[in-house]
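G., the chain you wanted modeled:
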Amino acid sequence: MKKLFLVLTIILTSTLAFSGCTNKENATETQKTQPENKDADKNEENNKEQNKEENSSLDINKEDLIEVTDAFGDTIKLKKRPENVICLYNSYLDLWDQAGGKVVGRISTKGFVPENAKDASIVGTMSKPDMEKIIALKPDLIIMSGNHSQTEFTDLFKQNNIPYYAVKYTSLTEFLDVYKVFTSLTSHDELYEEKGVKIKNEIDDILARVPKDKKPSALVLFGTSKTVKAMLPNSQVGAMLEDLGVTNIAYDAQLSDEEMQTFSMEKVVQRAPEFIFVQTMGDVEEVKKRIADDVEANPAWGSLEAVKNNKYYYLDKELYLYKPNMKYAEAYRGLAKLLYPEVFGE
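Predicted structure as tokens:
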């Protein structure tokens, strides 16, 4: 009888890359002292006007700029307290709101929308933003995803002199870094101290309680109504599990920046994961049907310890599919309870 293999297809979700506006300030050469006369005064005034003209694209002082590294790895300068902000990624809209920011434009979404953003203009969808509407709103900052799905729009933003910040975060550290940038941009640094530091401290407390003598193994699946894939350690859930002392059995399946990749049932059986976690996108019941047809129908599936021991879990979308943001500690705690019930159980 032929061996049955589950091939989990590759998708690229690497992060949406962002570039921002650059500071066009050019220092002028210090002029030598000249005799006081009208021509000298006139030259000085001309120099001032020239400098003012050169800086008109930012029209701000240096103290009103912050320097950051975007999702492309580019060092950029952004103006503080932008007034006409457009956000093209819903999870980042939530974080921007938590940083005290407001928007004049956002994408259409079925997900959660902060109260302050509900009246903002709809500027298309995440994959198909409406450039005419965006330009009409005269944004002084666009917050976009660093994933491939939005990188094609950066040239249009550049052509229209629209500053943009490409964001991507997968790990807790990356999330905190972005939140700190957001609170700096809104000049609400106190919110980072109030919320960001609190989240970090809560998660540090959780990690300090993780048993040091255990190293559970896990398989993380990503399911839609059409496909099932294996999540790698550099994915959002993968990063949380690694922090919690878990070995992702797809540890050697990494290719460049992919977060999901092919993985065979043969290797799953060989590495015998103690836990199986499933992320779902779309209708959960349809995903379960797909997994039943493509995965559970394999005779080898029932032999896995994780299945036999009922350690096969579907994860909450709000915490593990979307960005958990202010619920990061809750997301860590939820996984810790499943992994180490003797420590984190009720």
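The chain is about 35% helix and 15% strand.

Shout if anything looks off.
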